[in-house]
Amino acid sequence: MPELPEVETTRRGVAPYLDGATLQGAIVRDGRLRWPVPPQLDAILSGLTVRAVTRRAKYLIIHFDSGSLLIHLGMSGSLRYVPATTPAQKHDHIDLKLGSHVLRYRDPRRFGAMLWHVGPLEFHPLLQALGPEPLTDDFNGDVLHAAISKRSAAIKLVIMDNHVVVGVGNIYANESLFHAGINPTRAASTLSRAECQALATEIKRVLALAIEAGGSTLRDFVNTEGKSGYFQQDYYVYDRQEQACRICSSPIRQIRQGQRSSYYCPLCQPC
């Protein structure tokens, strides 16, 4: 599933084409996504000018004077800026019309979303309970320490909870914990303030590096130009079970937590 760096990579890719552009409407070939696409989307968007393209957690938000379009890439979604004459393929479900070009939403598994919202975004049911953005000043070691001080669950599961901090998916949780020297199975409440500061710092650093690398190559993820990201070349633990740790040469171990795979070095991340 595309995580925060992949979504931010997409935002940066589409923003130059959308900022200030006036839409001629939308073509909805198949509106059966995770939630139904508004059947009147073409009429809603026709003639609207894009004021900004932002991101909240893993949601892309296209802002207009009269409302906002929320886009979630789901497990396999992508957005590509292509000539309007480009033939649509089987899984190309929606086009946002931009004159000679379209912003094309492709989603083989149809688990993404494209929703219209009128009113303050902070009250949208999908956004109102989200935690702080990890790459802003709203998130730091003190904030993390306060959020997890009474949580007995494993720290990896806790930092993947969007109520604690948004956008830290499985890949980047594994990598951040490794660089902070924290075992993924430790009870969150046992982390000291100093350890929380180290973990918050690594979450910010790892996510920033992944964004600069264009995200990771995750099965279906490609950026707006159809190219894969390269952060997977820099993994220290994720998907490297039984391979030598890049720091101490110990074999990387794999376990299951919350139905997801966790990876860690037993020497660099002691229990």
Automatic annotation (TrEMBL):
<keyword id="KW-0326">Glycosidase</keyword>
<keyword id="KW-0456">Lyase</keyword>
<dbReference type="GO" id="GO:0003684">
    <property type="term" value="F:damaged DNA binding"/>
</dbReference>
<keyword id="KW-0479">Metal-binding</keyword>
<keyword id="KW-0234">DNA repair</keyword>
<dbReference type="Pfam" id="PF06831">
    <property type="entry name" value="H2TH"/>
</dbReference>
<feature type="binding site">
    <location>
        <position position="91"/>
    </location>
    <ligand>
        <name>DNA</name>
    </ligand>
</feature>
<feature type="active site" description="Proton donor; for beta-elimination activity">
    <location>
        <position position="58"/>
    </location>
</feature>
<dbReference type="InterPro" id="IPR010663">
    <property type="entry name" value="Znf_FPG/IleRS"/>
</dbReference>
<feature type="active site" description="Proton donor; for delta-elimination activity">
    <location>
        <position position="260"/>
    </location>
</feature>
<protein>
    <recommendedName>
        <fullName>Formamidopyrimidine-DNA glycosylase</fullName>
        <ecNumber>3.2.2.23</ecNumber>
        <ecNumber>4.2.99.18</ecNumber>
    </recommendedName>
</protein>
<comment type="subunit">
    <text>Monomer.</text>
</comment>
<feature type="binding site">
    <location>
        <position position="151"/>
    </location>
    <ligand>
        <name>DNA</name>
    </ligand>
</feature>
<keyword id="KW-0862">Zinc</keyword>
<comment type="similarity">
    <text>Belongs to the FPG family.</text>
</comment>
<dbReference type="InterPro" id="IPR010979">
    <property type="entry name" value="Ribosomal_uS13-like_H2TH"/>
</dbReference>
<dbReference type="InterPro" id="IPR015887">
    <property type="entry name" value="DNA_glyclase_Znf_dom_DNA_BS"/>
</dbReference>
<comment type="function">
    <text>Involved in base excision repair of DNA damaged by oxidation or by mutagenic agents. Acts as DNA glycosylase that recognizes and removes damaged bases. Has a preference for oxidized purines, such as 7,8-dihydro-8-oxoguanine (8-oxoG). Has AP (apurinic/apyrimidinic) lyase activity and introduces nicks in the DNA strand. Cleaves the DNA backbone by beta-delta elimination to generate a single-strand break at the site of the removed base with both 3'- and 5'-phosphates.</text>
</comment>
<dbReference type="InterPro" id="IPR015886">
    <property type="entry name" value="H2TH_FPG"/>
</dbReference>
<feature type="active site" description="Schiff-base intermediate with DNA">
    <location>
        <position position="2"/>
    </location>
</feature>
<keyword id="KW-0238">DNA-binding</keyword>
<feature type="domain" description="Formamidopyrimidine-DNA glycosylase catalytic">
    <location>
        <begin position="2"/>
        <end position="112"/>
    </location>
</feature>
<keyword id="KW-0511">Multifunctional enzyme</keyword>
<dbReference type="GO" id="GO:0034039">
    <property type="term" value="F:8-oxo-7,8-dihydroguanine DNA N-glycosylase activity"/>
</dbReference>
<dbReference type="Pfam" id="PF01149">
    <property type="entry name" value="Fapy_DNA_glyco"/>
</dbReference>
<dbReference type="InterPro" id="IPR000214">
    <property type="entry name" value="Znf_DNA_glyclase/AP_lyase"/>
</dbReference>
<dbReference type="GO" id="GO:0140078">
    <property type="term" value="F:class I DNA-(apurinic or apyrimidinic site) endonuclease activity"/>
</dbReference>
<keyword id="KW-0227">DNA damage</keyword>
<keyword id="KW-0378">Hydrolase</keyword>
<dbReference type="Pfam" id="PF06827">
    <property type="entry name" value="zf-FPG_IleRS"/>
</dbReference>
<feature type="active site" description="Proton donor">
    <location>
        <position position="3"/>
    </location>
</feature>
<dbReference type="GO" id="GO:0008270">
    <property type="term" value="F:zinc ion binding"/>
</dbReference>
<dbReference type="GO" id="GO:0006284">
    <property type="term" value="P:base-excision repair"/>
</dbReference>
<feature type="binding site">
    <location>
        <position position="109"/>
    </location>
    <ligand>
        <name>DNA</name>
    </ligand>
</feature>
<dbReference type="InterPro" id="IPR035937">
    <property type="entry name" value="FPG_N"/>
</dbReference>
<keyword id="KW-0863">Zinc-finger</keyword>
<feature type="domain" description="FPG-type">
    <location>
        <begin position="236"/>
        <end position="270"/>
    </location>
</feature>
<dbReference type="InterPro" id="IPR020629">
    <property type="entry name" value="FPG_Glyclase"/>
</dbReference>
<dbReference type="InterPro" id="IPR012319">
    <property type="entry name" value="FPG_cat"/>
</dbReference>
